[in-house]
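Hi support team,

I submitted a single chain yesterday and got back a structure, but I'm not sure I'm reading the token output correctly. Could someone confirm the output below corresponds to the sequence I sent? I've pasted both exactly as they appear in my results page.

Thanks,
R.
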Amino acid sequence: MDEPEIVSGQSLTEVLARAASQRMPCELSLLSRGKWHKTGAAIVTATDQAIHVELPNGRDAQPIHLQINQPVGLSLQHEYNRYIFETVVLGLETSVNHCAGGRVILERPEKMERLQRRAYQRVSVPAGLNIKVLFWHRGYTDDWTEAPLENYWQGRLVNLSAGGAYVTVESDQRVNFRIRQVLGLQFTPMPHEKPILLEAQVIHLQEDAETGTLNIGAEFLGLEAAGEPRQKLHRLREIVEKYDDENNHRPADSAVNSQ
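Hi R., thanks for writing in. Yes, this is the structure output for that exact sequence:
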């Protein structure tokens, strides 16, 4: 898997101009009230000083709490690449914090990272690896306040990407989970490696009657931010690459014998 590229100067200008001309969808990440939040948006204008993004409105819009000078991360996908960068809020409409859509004005970055999109494609955990996942309740990304009956669980990692993971638990735990729930999540990706600690929100829940398990689809939060979050993103890319290599190069007879 190729290393991330730094995009700056004219190349950066061209990426942002193309995104604005196509009203390209993007994801906005921010840390608010001690939790990471992520919301969909669209880039509508890009100048030499600022980027204007439009937030969704309607029933499915999530409440966010933006402030002037607040750091935010932005991620957009174009063709075979994903571009990520951190910036700050320069201005916003009063409707933004009331789930009524609106536009946010962001400072134009001096550089961004370009990653290959395949890092965000889910890769199965290699056969023979039993990756236990410890995770715990961290609240919700919407206004829901009811706490689950339990707040700490152990599951098994099924697949992984740089953007999220699937974890399974026993189906009788269904009552403890809901969409937009925030989870702290920790697992050791390979034997003798350091564990990785992440924050994620639940975006998918599905019970499997045959296996008696609950599949939890979780999307990672806050990895667009500079510093430690971005380091975690790069480590996730490396883990995904290792899993992919294991799956592609594992001898067929070994795979059968491990089942």
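A quick pointer for reading it: The radius of gyration is 19 Å. Let us know if anything else looks off.

Best,
Support desk
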